[in-house]
Predict the structure.
Amino acid sequence: MSRRKLFSGREIYNHEKSDSLFLEAVKKNILYHKSNCREYEEILDSMDFHINDLTSMEDLYKLPSIPTMYLKTHYLASMSKRRLLVKATSTGTSGTYSRIGYNFLSLFYGAVMAWKLLQFHGLFSLKRTNYILLGYEPHRSNETIITKTQLLSTFMAPAKQRVYALQYKDHGYEVNFDDIKNALDQYSRQKNPVRLIGFPYYTLFLLKELKKNQISYQLPKGSMVLLGGGWKGFYQEETEKETLFQMIREILGIEEENCREFFGAAEHPVLYCTCPNHHFHVSNYSRVIIRDVMSLEPVKNGQPGLVNLMTPMADSMPLTSIMTDDLGVLYDGNQCGCGIETPYLEILGRIGMKEIQTCAVNAADLLGE
Ligand SMILES: [Zn+2]
């Protein structure tokens, strides 16, 4: 009931109003997983956690969180695989990945969340749109969440045509920027808006290629660039982002306000979309705690630490509180100035572990760098 209310609320960025519902929904979610997933129960017991420890939002940090690294080696589920409608993996070409599944109700709430968030950020359109996907062409061998989300994102406006940078050939994926250039030539002469969707890394690579060959376009009015999937080594360099937006304006003729970035994790089914100032505000459907890298105690807003993501969305797996291997900072919402009052998350980078392969690292391999 509390979860339904949380997801059906009219506002999506109001923590003050949604805090009590969120806490209630989280508690119910924990109890559900505790009684349906023995491993999860053991984890909670071994950490001496009791549901009564959560009396206010300030207590949320007491809930033991499951590290994403743990999910890469353990399959935790609160229902049988038969009930899962969508099964997907986190970035999975390197061998270590989490297997994540969602049941109907979790997906339903996911869809409600995505719908509200995308509508709030003005991403739905009825205009037929040409899509350029700087990512993987869907193929049955590819179960990564990012590929599924990239494909889903081509339904926010009806697709006239889709072209992929990474095409599936006989022996796997190959990068094909020539097709992308041809598509840009063709689309820039049409009236339909163009949406370029992809990893920031590929986008920057494409723009550099175009610039090198002195090619630039004025894409039709209403065109957008949607970025997602992480920044790899660019994390620390905010200037890289500014460079990217500047190049998008110069080379594609798309203004900065029409560039959005998305953040999400396979293990945390909540979507984050940047505000006009390029910040990831935390919506009502999740909360973020930044923890000290050594003590794991929560730190004050403005201080860096490990990113702990929480949501009561999923029934299929105990994903209520997930400890990522990302470093980040949470800022007070009013520091942004866009009008959204909830805190915003800045991802600083991934903690250095060689075995953690990100999408972007694999991208770098494919590009031969
Ligand atoms: Zn903002």
